[in-house]
Amino acid sequence: MNKQILKMCLMLIGLGLSVSVWAGDVVVIVNKDNDNAINKALVAKIYRGQMRQWSGGEKIILLDLPESSPTRESFSSDIVGKSESSLKYAWAQLMFSGAAVPPKEVQSDEEMKKYVSDNKNAIGYIKASSLDSSVKAVVK
Hints:
Blueprint: H1 2-22, E1 26-30, H2 40-47, E2 61-64, H3 70-80, H4 84-97, E3 104-105, H5 109-118, E4 122-127, E5 136-139
Parallel strand pairs: 2-3, 2-4
Antiparallel strand pairs: 1-4, 1-5
């Protein structure tokens, strides 16, 4: 019985280590033609629904990965500074008041890159290892 518990504990610790090493491996991306000055604080404001237009007045197109994505969880906590449930609640309030529309959900890093590369006003995030020359990294 003790060996089974020990094996399970070691397995859980191993999973925890792989998640913590992987967390933070997120990069915020925009279209290569987007010349706005973008930093972590601005990204947080955008994803909290506090900023809906780029400096030139164009509407920001927000993108999110699925709720089940570990990349989304890392992005929410590490970049936006909110838990996934806090962000969900904030977006529900914004939607209810008619102030904003929540981010469009895409299914993968590849879909995120494609959407961002095709839309000058789009902003999203992917795993750093998925970054390529089709988009511009603005926050790591």
